[in-house]
Amino acid sequence: METYIQISNLNDFIFCPRSIYFHQLFGKISTRMYHTESQIRGKAAHEAIDEKTYSTCKNILQGMEVYSEKYGLCGKIDIYDQDERTLIERKKHIEVIYDGYVFQIYAQYFCLTEMGYPVESMFFYSFDTNRKYSVELPKDDPAMFAKFEKLIDNVNNCDLNRFTQTNAEKCRHCVYTALCDQALC
Fold this sequence. Notes:
This protein is α/β, with parallel strands linked by helices. It has helices at residues 8-15, 17-27, 37-45, 47-50, 99-114, 142-156, 168-172; strands at 5-6, 60-62, 65-68, 73-76, 79-81, 86-91, 121-126, 131-135. The termini are far apart.
């Protein structure tokens, strides 16, 4: 059986691979077990996309499931404007464009292009501030593209039994700290 990497897990993996394990363990029970307050607000901001009520325009694809055979990825896009060939990732509030954000939109980009949807531009939209942040296409940012491919390789070859979190700040902000016997805290 093929296993795919969930696009939403890329950012979680950067935070801590163990958090994905706990998401899977407790995710069937309730997201309240593992979502922080900011994640709950972000999910609420995504409701129009998830329910596909963001737009009624036929050229706007929203919340569409996507996959990539090449990278073994699957997930959903937020918005793809077929006329503009633009991929848009909405976030509740953006202060910093983290690498994990970029890797998630890269993953969506590769899935869409592999599925036959050309992407010529991409950006993040900050819901709270009504601001757009352009993101270079992977072909135009070789350093970030190499980091993306390294991340995919790291996810595919991760051994949780050998993984040790070395960033105490991540453990301090993790909702699973009390459950994780590998935590630094």
